[in-house]
Structure formats: structure tokens, C-alpha cells
Fold this sequence. Notes:
Blueprint: H1 17-25, H2 35-65, H3 83-90, H4 97-110, H5 114-119, H6 122-136, H7 140-148, H8 152-185, H9 192-206, E1 213-217, E2 220-225, H10 233-248, H11 291-300, H12 304-311, H13 320-343
Antiparallel strand pairs: 1-2
Helix pairs in contact: 2-8, 2-11, 2-13, 4-8, 4-10, 8-9, 8-10, 9-13, 10-13, 11-13
Amino acid sequence: MPIVPAELVHANLSIDRAEVQRRLLAGETLLKDTPDHLLEVVDVLKSYGEVLDAYSINLIYQAERQFLNPLPIFKYLDGDHSPAKIWRHLNHDRINFEYAEYCQKAMFWHATGGMDAYFDSEAFADNCRRIIDAKRRRDPLLALLNPLFPGFLPELIRSAATTHALGQFWRVMSDLFLDLAAAEADGRVRSIPAVVEFIKDGLVAAAANPIRYGVSIGGEQLWVLPPEAGLTFLVDVAVPYVEAVFLRGMPFLGTVSFNAQAQQISPDQAQFTYGALYADPLPSMGSGIPPSLLMQDMYRHLPERLHQWYRERTRGEGDVRVKICMSFQKSMFCVTNAAINGTMPHP
């Protein structure tokens, strides 16, 4: 048996841009409809749904309970400071919330969609001023920092707003992926086109869900993302998430030179192609590769049916996380497919 499995050594058969456009406009799926693909996509999304549940809970906890905390050393504990929880955390018997933060930073940095436009508005600046005035009366450190660095706290508030919005987005997606697994189990979903349609219907149903975020300071409720901002699930969070995480992403340490003279990274963020849909699965579990954290989280929640399918292929358990990454990539093509279809007036 070769050291590198034959199925991982092949010519690049990826379709070109024109073919992608043709398939999308024709209402076809980007992923080929096969029984193996159906098993991979449904089961890996079931695992992902369970992981997203934990990610969502923690991001919302961070945004609401760790808001403007200068030393958030317990931010991954979801408010449970018991010795058992801390011990499991220190022994790394836990979900890797660092990957959730990586996705949040990608969204925050690429800054697309209506939420970013609202961040630049005078209304948001007024909200920040009210929040900072209320917070610094109770926090001497923030009272000292704000006059010295007037742009620092508003930037932290923008980051917290992105964190909370991503938590709300993942709450919907977690429920949707777990519902998809249940639909496949009872025979309602039997093909890749049906998977795409199921996800699209879920996205469309949640499209108009309002994205709101407020914090409580000294018993006073203050809005960060108020209802008046008019932010909604699909246009202002889901689509920017797909663009930032699936398409653009950020270059991983150790895979490309960060030396500006080497010119290996485009100076134009719109040209970035480091997202999940472009990712090479082989570096999974390598140092500095953030999706490795997600692959480990998904491995902990892997359905037995998919786990057995992996054991029977290539190096069994030896490259299971690489195979999870490949299945996850296929599933993200389906999610992207559904998101694009959901923004079109008709197939």
C-alpha cells in the first residue's frame, strides 16, 4: 500500500468558474449526487451541529457575560467554575472554542455585509459612547484606557457584537444540521439535491430573523445592535459568514510566507482564497492550522456510521481527521450552494 493513499493523489479535476456559474444558474448541485456523498455530508453535518451548539452557547456567553472584561481567563467555561470543569479544561478534555474565535476574527476582519456598515454609523458610535460611559464608572482600568486610546473600546464593542451575531447564526445552523440528520434517518432526505434543498429551506425560513444584541451594565440595559439597526440573519450574518470563512479565510501559519517582500499574500482581501472551500485537507492536524481544532471537535462527536465508513478506507484511524476535513469540505459546498440558492429569486 502506498504511503499516500491513491485517492489523495490525483490530477486537479476542479471545475472552472464558468461551470460553477452554469450549475448554480441551472439549479444543479456543486457536489455530485452519490450514496457515499450523502452519508458523508449528512453525518459530518450532524457532528458539526453538535459542535456548533457548544460554539454558539460559548460565543453568546462571552459577548454577554465577559463583555469588556480585560482579563477573560474563564471565558471558555460558560460560567461553570467548578474544579472538575477547570481540570477538564486544563487537560484539554473540552471543545476547542479557539476555532470559533478564529471564525469570528475572520468575519470581523473581512468586514462585509450590513453589520459592518452599521458599525460605521453615527448611531453605533452613540451606542458605544453610552456603553463606555456606563462601564468606566465601574471599571477604573477602562476609565484610564479610554482617554489614552479612544478607539480601543469601540473596537472591542464591534468585536463583541460580531461574536454575539455569530453565536446567533450558529444557533440556527446547529438546529438545522441536527434536523437534517433526523430527516435523512426517517427517509425524507435521500439525495444531495435534497440536502441542498433542506438547508436552503432552513436558511430561507430564518432569513428575516432579527439580529439584536444588548448588554446589562449596573442593572441598565444598553443596546449594541438595536432593533432599529434592521439587521437580519441571512443577508447581514449568513452571507458575510460564507464569504469570510468559506471563501476568503485567512492564510495559515506555516503554509505561506507572511513576508511582504515574498508577495505570497495578496494585498487585496477580496482576492483571498484561503477559505474552507479552497483548503487542502492534508495539513489537517498540523501546527498553526486552525481547522485542525474543528476536526478534533467533530471527531469527538462523530456518528458511528460515518466512523465505520472511515475505518474501512485508506489508513483507517490513521488519517481519520484528514477524511473528516474532506467530508466537511464537501458538506460546505452543499451549504454554500444552499446559501446562494436562497438569495436567488428562482432556480
